[in-house]
Amino acid sequence: MAKAIMVQGTMSNAGKSLLVAGLCRLFKQDGYSVAPFKSQNMALNSFITKEGLEMGRAQVVQAEAAGIEPSVLMNPILLKPTNDMASQVIVNGEVYSNMDAKEYYSHKRDMVPEIKKAYDKLASQYDIIVLEGAGSPAEINLQENDIVNMYMAKMAKAPVLLAGDIDRGGVFASLVGTMALFNEEDRAMVKGTIINKFRGDKTILQPGLSMLEKIIHVPTVGVVPYLHVDIDDEDSLTEKFSRKGKVALIDIAVIRLPRISNFTDFNVFEYSDAVGLRYVDSVGQLGNPDLIIIPGTKNTMEDLLWMRQCGLEAAIIKYAAAGKPLIGICGGFQMLGRELKDSDHVEHGGNMKGMGLLPCTTVFEKKKTRTQVKGHFITEGNGYFSALHGIEIEGYEIHMGQSTVEESEESSVNFLTQITEISSKKTDQSAGLFKDNIYGSYIHGIFDKEDVVKTIVSVLLKKKGLDESAVSGLDVKAYKEEQYNLLAKGLRENMDMEAVYRILNEGV
């Protein structure tokens, strides 16, 4: 079985996911086979494996950092919030049930056999497993039914590194308070602390580190600076939503839906110096961008209703009527259609008019579509982005609804893509729709090929009368590799890796 080490945090967004990704890359660089593991993840950013199974994107990022294929074994339980009180529960990559918080809390320990089975299988395949906790391990109202923090550390016999976020302030209090709320057994599992997201002169911090060690009797194994690496964020705690888009030649606005999912689809646009990408949630913020994107959502009908009530729907329809480009991905694609039907109460329930910009109707079904796809654009001589024609795409679909066009209209409809492969099986079918300047697709990751972004940005520049020849292609995989290496370098330079290896080898 693999040796194990676990990163827990004093709070949500303490930087656990990034630290795990960095350790995965660092151990890989040192010649070990390594894999990430998080027993339970709550996030709306998810991914479909080659087997058609769904897992959290944070573990996908960590798997990429480790240089291995993502597996649902790395994230056996995924919770995808459908509203403020309930989540879709995904077990081993498949939908298990929709549960409210109280119901799930009473069933959490039922998941333990599946978690143990996944962990044991993963641990039999690698030298090292780097585990990630969730939220705070010291939520005393939740500790009794914990399956992701100290309970998991004990199951995996994994010593714990406890990370605190100094950027928010109160890092010493949060570390001391967390240790104080542990029982003696849990406290003994913590073998080192990490001060994360530090800015400034470390020598000024030293007296505090000495006092901290005297109080909690645990050494500090790292003071990690605020690392400026471009790696996919885990969920809605991302700083992207509050950050102003950089001033650039092209302005892209992504609608920040209340239940936005898979917003990592658009990160690739930020790699271009010519593009400023921003997230907007009001008409006042929208302005007059060069491109609007409506992203995926865990509840299409409720988020469309929200857009309708806050005036964004009307503003977007007016924008599209002026001939400016609009793209909808997954739930955003469903919104662009004529009607949404949910007789089985999969999401909101009932029927609702769509935005009426594309000639399709979506019917929500209890069965979830989960598949990887390959294909190419079929936009020859037609539409705003006709230059995309023939460019290859890869991605994945995750959705509960099916969107169809009436037979009487099929001959006049422009399909956006030709799918040639579904989850490694050859096929030949059309998918997605477009009409003039309006585009819709179910495929997440449709922009990840460098030629796709280059072409879209070039078209937008040309429409503004700007020189599009300066836009270069970008090797997305090479760019990601560079960022993972920078992350590992940052950890190696600012953590006591001798101490980390000693903790890993000694275990608990």
Automatic annotation (TrEMBL):
InterPro entries: Class_I_gatase-like, CobQ/CobB/MinD/ParA_Nub-bd_dom, CobQ_GATase1, CobQ_N, CobQ_synth, GATase_3, P-loop_NTPase. Pathway: Cofactor biosynthesis; adenosylcobalamin biosynthesis. GO terms for molecular function: ABC-type vitamin B12 transporter activity; catalytic activity. SUPFAM superfamilies: Class I glutamine amidotransferase-like, P-loop containing nucleoside triphosphate hydrolases. CDD domains: CobQ_N, GATase1_CobQ. PROSITE patterns: GATASE_COBBQ (PS51274), GATASE_TYPE_1 (PS51273). Pfam families: CbiA, GATase_3. Residues 251-451 form the CobB/CobQ-like glutamine amidotransferase domain. Keywords: Cobalamin biosynthesis, Glutamine amidotransferase. Residues 5-227 form the CobQ/CobB/MinD/ParA nucleotide binding domain. The active site is at 330 (nucleophile), 444. GO terms for biological process: cobalamin biosynthetic process. NCBIfam families: cobQ, PRK00784.1. Catalyzes amidations at positions B, D, E, and G on adenosylcobyrinic A,C-diamide. NH(2) groups are provided by glutamine, and one molecule of ATP is hydrogenolyzed for each amidation. PANTHER family: COBYRIC ACID SYNTHASE, DETHIOBIOTIN SYNTHETASE. Belongs to the CobB/CobQ family. CobQ subfamily. This is Cobyric acid synthase. It comes from Aminipila luticellarii.
